[in-house]
Design brief:
The structure is a single chain. The protein is mostly helical and 212 residues long. It has 10 helices and no strands. It folds into 2 domains: 43 residues, Arc Repressor Mutant, subunit A; 144 residues, Tetracycline Repressor, domain 2 (Orthogonal Bundle), CATH 1.10.357. Helix content is 66%, strand content 0%.
């Protein structure tokens, strides 16, 4: 792993554990055995480092999701892919996704990086909005409040970054399958077999710290 990747791994770990605001360049330097000047040789600022991590992470989620959704038209299939892919991405990359989900507030409001991350998030969430709206429109889903349903389902999926462990009682495939079942029940869809995520298409983040 080169110096830039070591810095990113340390940053993800520190930002996820103690928060961006509580992490200094000196902390990063200690974590990778470099001076402050050495860190700044690879990154222009702490905020630029955060923005880069969030940009790459969110783009990876969006692009992988779009590839997995391409073969499917039915809203139920698309919802199954959305639930299982978001669940798996967070379970496999808990530190990266905690930073991606929780540190938008640390980017300067109105900055180019801040606006870019918001645009990437909006593009991703649009897939959820369309799947739910299409399901309601065709009568497959019965949802009183599409926004609340979307937020509830997405929160269920992203929560795996906090509790899922590969050596736990359930495999990731089992967790994803159960979450899809829960999601279909939440939208009152008829019992049916639906598509789920292709794990081979999930994004990989080289800086994600190894499991402890």
């Amino acid at each position: 792993m080169d110096a830039s990747e070591r810095i990113r791994t340390a940053a993800v770990l520190l930002f996820a554990r103690q928060g961006y605001a509580a992490t200094s360049i000196r902390d990063l330097g200690r974590a990778v055995g470099m001076t402050n000047a050495g860190i700044y040789h690879h990154v222009s600022s702490k905020e630029a480092l955060l923005a880069d991590l969030m940009r790459v992470a969110q783009r990876g989620v969006t692009e992988a999701t779009e590839r997995m959704l391409t073969p499917f038209d039915r809203p139920a299939d698309r919802l199954g892919v959305l639930i299982s892919s978001l669940t798996a991405i967070h379970a496999r990359n808990p530190m990266t996704t905690r930073v991606m989900d929780g540190e938008l507030r640390s980017l300067t409001p109105g900055s180019a990086a801040h606006d870019e991350i918001i645009a990437l998030r909006d593009a991703y969430e649009e897939h959820w909005k369309r799947a739910l709206a299409d399901g309601v429109a065709e009568g497959t889903f019965r949802v009183a409040d599409q926004k609340l349903t979307r937020l509830a389902l997405m929160s269920m999926c992203t929560g795996t970054s906090e509790w899922y462990r590969p050596d736990g009682a359930s495999t990731l495939e089992q967790v994803c399958a159960e979450f899809v079942t829960i999601g279909l029940a939440a939208v009152r869809a008829p019992a049916q077999a639906v598509a789920t995520a292709d794990f081979s298409l999930l994004p990989e983040y080289p800086w994600e710290p190894p499991d402890e």
